[in-house]
Design goal:
The longest helix is centred in the last third of the chain and has 18 residues. This protein is α/β, with parallel strands linked by helices.
């Protein structure tokens, strides 16, 4: 995908963040860090220590109190319930072994009224969706990413209310917003 387009999507995602306490699940190498807002304290979580090291280097210009890096798994978050105002993830749930479990954990750590924001590629509808279903197995074996997930349905099953989505590239890449009641 065009890098400028993905940067624009990331900027759009982070423009919707409400703080002050924000969890970025699956921070990876820190590609979202340039979009962190000064009025938020972000907890950047990832399973991989090597990813967190790269993310830390991207955050060098940010005030130390603005970003905290935590090694952990979205499927078993090391935070008490009702901690965060917003939870954000970008292109994470295609590679999580138990995505519904990860979404349930995000639901648990959000405060009542807190929001979940996801930038994800999702299973399309119609002919494109059927093609994605056919390619999902081989694509997963090559990349470790599952491309035919109905992420919106998983979000609903995880207990979120008011689930809405905005298509960014056909109905394959979208921003999903959900609220914890």
């Amino acid at each position: 995908m065009d890098l400028a387009l993905v940067k624009r999507w990331r900027r759009l995602l982070w423009s919707q963040v409400e703080g002050p306490l924000v969890l970025e699940a699956g921070v990876g190498t820190g590609l979202n860090i340039p979009h962190y807002r000064a009025d938020c304290r972000v907890t950047a979580l990832d399973k991989g220590a090597h990813f967190l090291a790269r993310a830390r280097s991207r955050a060098l210009g940010k005030p130390a109190q603005q970003v905290e890096f935590v090694q952990g798994d979205v499927q078993d978050l090391p935070f008490p319930g009702s901690t965060f105002d917003t939870a954000v993830a970008a292109f994470l749930f295609c590679s999580v072994e138990r995505p519904e479990r990860g979404l349930q954990e995000l639901h648990r750590v959000l405060k009542p009224g807190g929001q979940l924001l996801l930038l994800e590629h999702c299973r399309s509808r119609g002919v494109l969706g059927r093609l994605m279903d056919l390619l999902a197995g081989p694509f997963y074996r090559l990349s470790g990413d599952f491309i035919a997930t109905d992420t919106g349905a998983l979000v609903r099953r995880a207990g979120f209310a008011s689930v809405t989505s905005r298509n960014l590239l056909l109905d394959v890449v979208k921003i999903i917003r959900a609220v914890k009641e």
